[in-house]
Amino acid sequence: MIQDPTSPKLAPELFDIVIDFLHDDHVTLHNCSLTCRAWLPSCRFHLFRSVSTPAEGGSLHALNRLIKRSPYISQYIKELSVELSVESEILPFVSIAGHLEAVEVLDIKYNSSTLEKIRPADLTGIEPVRTLKMSGLTDSATIITVFINFFTVFRHVQELWLDTDLCYTYPILEKYNFDSLANSLAALHLRRIQASDTALEVLLPCLRLRPMDDVVEFRVVRESMSPRYDQISEALPFMAQSLEGFVLNFINDRRRDPDDLVVAANDSFKACPLLERLVLYIKCRDINHFADQFQCITDTQIRYIDLIIGIHDDIEHLQCMQDLVGVLEDTSHFSLLHHLSITLRPNQPDLMVEDVRKRMPEFLTPNIFDGLRVRGVMVTLKLTNDNTPIRWTKHHTGLALNSCRPLIYSPIVPFHGVAMADLIPTICLPHRH
């Protein structure tokens, strides 16, 4: 049938809006891609934007075959996550590397024996990588050489996620010369670093040799059973000239009582004149513990505190929020505090957001934040799966919606197998998926 040229047509932008709305529905996107040729680019934009190839199932081999058959697909791949835990995955990875000219986020899970077989020349086709994530186990100091190769090739990286478990190589590393690694890291001009506490064994020696003057955000994720928190405190001053945000994640802490890291880092906070945001990921049962730690914080320039509270079967500990808020009401602690953001995140499959919402009035009084508001501190309280800010009001016995514009959280990919979609809050503008 010939279409009447006088019939009205919808603007292509409207189709894009509809397709953008389906960005996470791959089945529907696949069907839409078969509808007409004009819809195909927008559907492919979402279908192939983020590609993950777990080790099992031969998915990396399947991706290699797909790109060989349809090389134009590679232009849509912006985020690539690969597991190189077995040698059989090396060949297909090297094969597709030369076609990945649009990858901005590269996430590699490894063991050192596999990465050693990849030459720097094999990686040069992957560009323009802005975020590099490397996580895995190693029992060899040769991983340092691997890191140098990667940092040298991906010289435009601005964000580095490093989660390396060095197993029993610590005595070897104490004698290792970190000059080359420190130089390759410094050459990157990183803006953001996320490291597990175990990765500090590699990162800290580099910072001692070459302080970083471009890092604006430093994140540490608690992974090991016996972390060296003194290394975290020592690392901060080496980024003092530019550091604006410091993030600590205690959610994975398997011990009953967390360490007094916040207290230990007090002097380090003072050494960073631009540091104004502190983000803490804690368990609900630890609220009182951190209230005690906050009492020891003095003369700090921090203006923004973000508390992301994981709730398991310990929701009753929300009543300790009164103690924490009481500490923040005292101007001798965090005297420049301007904004307190609290996000409650249910961490149990059977604990739903609505369950938490219903039980909140049992443990939080309606006037709990009045003292902070008198002090001039803005307070945002919300649940993870509900981006509508919540506030208590004097004239309401329950919750009232806040009319102010909510904080916008940037999407974050899972780190080390932990699904933290709300990890590392940062104020940002909305962007196309």
Beta strands, count: 14
Order of neighbouring strands in the sheet with most strands? 1-2-3-4-5-6-7-8-9-10-11-12-13-14
> What ranges have pLDDT less than 50 throughout 5 or more consecutive residues?
386-433
* Mean pLDDT across all amino acids: 78
Distance between the termini: 36 Å
- Sheet having the most strands: 14 strands, mixed
Oligomeric description of these chains:
single chain
**Radius of gyration (Å):** 24 Å
Q: How much of the sequence is in beta strands?
A: 15-25%
Structural class by secondary-structure content: alpha/beta
Helix content: 25-40%
Rough shape? globular
Number of helices, counting only DSSP H or I runs of 4 residues or more: 18
Describe, in plain words, how this protein is organized in 3D.
With 433 residues, the protein is α/β, with parallel strands linked by helices. Helices cover 31% and strands 19% of the residues. It has helices spanning 12-21, 26-33, 40-47, 59-69, 90-97, 112-115, 120-123, 143-153, 170-174, 179-186, 200-209, 229-235, 261-264, 266-270, 287-294, 321-329, 353-363, 370-374, and strands at 50-53, 79-84, 105-111, 131-137, 159-165, 192-196, 217-221, 245-249, 277-283, 304-311, 339-346, 378-383, 386-391, 400-401. A 14-stranded mixed beta sheet has the order 1-2-3-4-5-6-7-8-9-10-11-12-13-14. Helix 10 (179-186) packs across helix 11.
